[in-house]
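[agent] plan:
  1. take the single chain provided in the ticket
  2. run structure prediction with default settings
  3. attach structure tokens to the ticket
  4. add a short note for the reviewer (M.T.)
[agent] executing step 1
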Amino acid sequence: MMYYFHSFPKVLTTDYNGNQIVLTNIMKRVELLPSVFNNPLAFYSYDIQDGDRPDVVANKYYGNSYRYWLPLFSSQITDPQWEWPLDSKSFDLYLANKYFEAAGSPIDPNTGKPSIPLITTYTQGTVYQYTQTIETVDSYTLKKTTDTIVIDEATYNSTPTGTTVKTFPDNNTITQTVSVNVVSIYDYEVNLNESKRSINLINSIYAAEIESQFVSLMGT
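[agent] step 2 finished; step 3 output follows
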């Protein structure tokens, strides 16, 4: 069992009163097994579930919650507070704090705290941005491409939508579908949060080796 920060080197320094104290040097960085990180077979994708924390994921996959740093390290997550998806309750609180003033500072009379239902209603009914999506399908290669761009309201209102088909002399076709969408603040924040759910996990067979190398490098 390895305590992550126990492996970091110590430094001797002086506090404001002139006393010598020992601190953990959390700024030290090392590179672990670059050959492993360049091998796609060394990883597999995991979708973070509501309520999953790094230690929960580590216990699920590695059988040890103290390996919580491995899911973060393998996905290059340096700020788990914001790079890890929020659970539903934390997400509601995040919205309430971020959009409290924009929503008119609504207060729940029963708790004296920001009214989550009213702020949620505000974010669901307020436009964050307009987008245009163009989906193209090539009948010859069967290749499908989708491009989405942000547009302004005037373009949103004036853009023709629908599907057009262009046929070539060899009877192959290009089918293009254009659509426009209104993205609310709520939808934007949900999509942003959901985009953080897919992470990489280092294959468990490498866990002990990476742990050992990490401790060794931190001690040099």
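[agent] step 4 note for reviewer: The first strand starts at residue 10 and ends at 14.
[agent] ticket updated
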